[in-house]
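Recap slide: Pseudouridine synthase, sequence and predicted structure.
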Amino acid sequence: MIIISSLGLILITCIIIWKACDGFEMASNYLGRNMKEGVKGATINAIGSSLPELFTTLFFLFVLKDRDGFSGGIGTTAGSAVFNAMIIPAVVILVVIGKGISSKIEISRKVILRDGISLIIAELALIFVITGTSLNWTHGLILMVLYFVYVAYMLMSQGAGDIENDYDDAADGGNRTVALFKGDLATVVLGDSKINKTKAIALLVVSVLFIGLACFWLVEACEQFGNAIGMPIYFVSVILASAATSVPDTIISYKDAMKGNYDDAVANALGSNIFDVCFALGFPLFLFTLIYGPIEMSAHTIENVSQLRVLLLIFTVLVFFIFVFAKNGVRRLHAKLLLLLYALFVAYSIGKGISDDIPVISEISDFLLKISGWVKI
């Protein structure tokens, strides 16, 4: 019964996160309407759609208050990064081609190189920063600084001049009480009036509050589910929490792709990953250790975290090369390859969570630990 109820709660949190991020998307689109395509996707859209990962990591740390909380946080951010890098581009490719919108998707090589290389650098930093048995606020600060450098570069890369993009999105209007029960936060805040800067900020704040509430429930549900099936919270977060928090990224990228904004669709996924790795993990780590002191990790936790970081880097490099060498556009074959890679990641995570004694899982685990040792040398 606990397994069913916890899975049901995870599903409910997915719906709340999805609805709340719709309101956040409307507000962020208005506030970022003068940004170039690709830049908006990698910054405003990416931050907005990655708020669930940030809140989930915060709650994992501050609710569990131990190394399990940290492992749950890194499991969510890293698992979400793998989801974003593979599932989101695959969904965009298959939907666009499946609906006959285009036979292939052309993505700016500049966007792929810029965000892809930035993400690889961020993941290498994660491997070098999260080392040893003790973590403190300086580790979180280093990751956050990396993200601020990335955002500063993105904003400066826009160049001079204003970009006036059309903005025709609006709330559905109607009864605000009914809208609240439907999860239509845009109507709750805007009513029948048009959006402006003040109302956009108000909608942003309300959306963030609902996202935070849903993420708190998500952490509770994942903890209950893990206890019920006897699986460490780390592995539950890698699969379930990461997928749940990636719902907004998927929806925003899908909507951008339907508008033909393929650069924003991919930049959102990659930019979200950079936010996840650097800020959604760095800020909670910084804040928690500043308040409660260093996090002491067990040898088992260090082993799991080390393997996940290396696995994340390997998959990111593979996806990067898939896009780089798709010079004539990405097609259905590329999407299937991305889905296969994600299926392998999930299979390994489930196998590792069940037992370390499964032969194939054990061999892969040893291989990842060796690579982790080489990278740090």
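The chain is about 80% helix and 0% strand.
The chain has one domain: 2-376.
(End of recap.)
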